[in-house]
Amino acid sequence: MLDKVYDVFARKDRGDQLVHIGYVDAMDDETAKVHAWTTYDEERWFEMCVVERTAIVPVNRDDGPFAKARRAAHHD
Amino acid sequence: MTDVLDVDSLPAVDRRALERLILTLADSKRLMGIRYSDWLLGAPSIETGIATSSMAQDEWGHARLVYAMLKDLDIDPVAVEHDRSPEEYASIGALDQEMPDWAALVAAMVLVDGALTTALASFAEGTFESARGRVPKMLAEEEFHASLGTAWYRRLARSEGDARRLLIEATEAMLPDVLAWLGADDGPARAVANAGVIGPADELLAAFRDRVRDVVALADIDVDRATATTGWDEARGRTPGHPDEHAVERVRGDKNRALFVE
Q1: Cα separation of A10 and A20, whole Å?
Q2: A39–B151 C-beta distance less than 8 A
Q3: N or C: which terminus of chain A carries fewer CB neighbours within 10 A?
Q4: Do residues B37 and B135 make contact, with C-beta atoms less than 8 angstroms apart?
């Protein structure tokens, strides 16, 4: 329904590792930002960002969600 | 920096004008929250439902902060929040009825929430100290509301069939009330503008039109040609009518009254 999958990354405090905290479905970058911020609001994040899943380049696996998303995008 | 308004030295008529402005902003925020809350479970996706839930919380938080500004006028906000009848509410007329479909809520996000943000942005830059301090955080939170509203408006406007038709109908239904509210140029509106509390009606209308012009144009609606609702209730600062009884019961928290603690 919402077209795209975005992976969500965040760090709780300045200097923390940026970690993958989940994903959201969204129409575009702007709605992905809103969905990520409102869905993963259990912490007061110092920094949060979203990445469209098809933009992630898998390095060592071709059977995970990132590889599948990339293959599907390239077949469109 | 603009001078700070000395509320205590305001003439009575100007105090009532400031009270009306605070009430219409706070009541509209609270009703906007109710209308968002109706879609927690009916939105088009889980993420969108979570977003409307968050936006409902934002609006209620904003309303609470704006009601609290009444203390500057020696008015008890608790009684105002919990003891008024629907006929006393000063919320924007476009919020009087529940949103019948998702397209109507999207139109309200862009038009009603957009009008409130336009007014609050001006309020934050005015002479009323409480607004200067409390409103900027609200405006930051409203950026997410605007992003979601614009994205959905774009999507529905570009769709075919019922979704686009419903969006156009909702926009045409809401716009006149919003224009009447922002464009009010009666005595109380001029009083708060003259005191530097908020911009004059023409300035607010121009800012609103700039904000939504390109968005509603996607539905072939020209905000510069749209006309305001005729009829005006000067006492409340809104068009005639009132929010539905059920919404106000929820706003007041009637069901929880027995447990009410402040």
Answers
A1: 7
A2: no
A3: C
A4: no
**Domain spans of chain B, in order of start:** 10-253
Kindly list the residues from chain B whose CB atom is less than 8 angstroms away from the CB atom of residue A1: 44-45
Query: Which residues of chain A does B48 touch, with a Cβ-Cβ cutoff of 8 Å?
Result: 2, 35
Is residue B129 within 8 A of residue B5, CB to CB? The reply is yes
pLDDT digits (tens, 9 = 90+) for B227-247: 999 999 999 999 999 999 999
Helix axis angle, B12-37 to B46-68, nearest 10°: 160
Q: What ipTM was reported for this prediction? A: 0.81
CATH code reported for the domain at B10-253: 1.20.1260.10
For the record, the structure tokens of A55 come out as 């933009």
Q: How many domains does chain A fold into?
A: 1
Cβ-nearest to B151 among A31, A37, A39? A31
**Token pair belonging to B153:** 């408006």
CATH number at residue A41: 3.10.20.520
**Can you tell me which residue has the tokens 């402040």?**
B262
